[in-house]
Amino acid sequence: MRNILLAAAAISAIAAPAFAQSGPEARGYGSLGYTHVEGDSATTGAVTGRLGVNLNRYLAVETEASVGVKDDDFTVAGVDGSIKHEWDAAGYVVGKYPVNDKLELFARGGYGHTELKQEIAGANTDIGGDSWNYGVGANYYLDGKNGVRADWTRRDFRDNGGEADAYSVSYVRRF
């Protein structure tokens, strides 16, 4: 699964400039920002990058990848431990509604993988897994190319793996 997500991200990175040049409605975009993740067992943070292609004014596809930068420390029966957000990646179909030239609302749904590591009493355990993801957000463009993105995404992990809510704020750039 991990290889499929990484391949999709690589293909999107290569294809985005070609799509961006195919017409006025088919433009690419990218974003870089911070994601705060609140899960059933931990609260972590990550730096998230996204790359997307607008297929038309109302529909886009995007990929995202994150690298953990904030861990969650805990104590159980006097023993210290932590949960580290290693990385995550996902692909989405995005429905957009342009309110005006500056404001754009969107809803997105897709599939992803999150990799966490739990460390307690010197033992490491890999946790995380595959998830169905869905959420909503908005882009506000300061000019024709640069803007701010805010979104919420629910990660619904498979095999009764729980849920996590991801809140992101990003710089977004159209190209």
Specify the helix fraction band: 10-25%
First-last Cα distance: 29 Å
| Low-confidence segments | 4-8, 18-24
- Which sheet architecture does the biggest sheet show? 8 strands, antiparallel, barrel
Strand content: over 45%
Structural class: mainly beta
Q: If helices are DSSP runs of H or I spanning 4 or more residues, what is the number of helices?
A: 1
**Multimerization status:** single chain
What is the global morphology? elongated
Task: Count the E strands.
Answer: 9
Task: State the order of secondary-structure elements, H for helix, E for strand.
Answer: HEEEEEEEEE
Whole-angstrom Rg? 17 Å
Order of strands, main sheet, comes to 1-2-3-5-6-7-8-9
Report the mean per-residue pLDDT as an integer. 88
What does this structure look like?
It contains one helix and nine strands. With 175 residues, the chain is mainly beta. The protein has an eight-stranded antiparallel β-barrel. The model is unreliable at 4-8 and 18-24 (pLDDT under 50).
Structure at a glance:
With 175 residues, this protein is mainly beta. It is built from one helix and nine strands; from the N terminus they run αβββββββββ.
Describe the secondary structure blueprint for this structure:
Blueprint (H helix, E strand, L loop, with lengths): L1 H19 L7 E12 L3 E12 L4 E12 L1 E5 L2 E20 L4 E18 L2 E19 L4 E12 L5 E12 L1
Antiparallel strand pairs: 1-2, 1-9, 2-3, 3-5, 4-5, 5-6, 6-7, 7-8, 8-9
Name the features.
eight-stranded antiparallel β-barrel, 1 helix, 175 residues, mainly beta
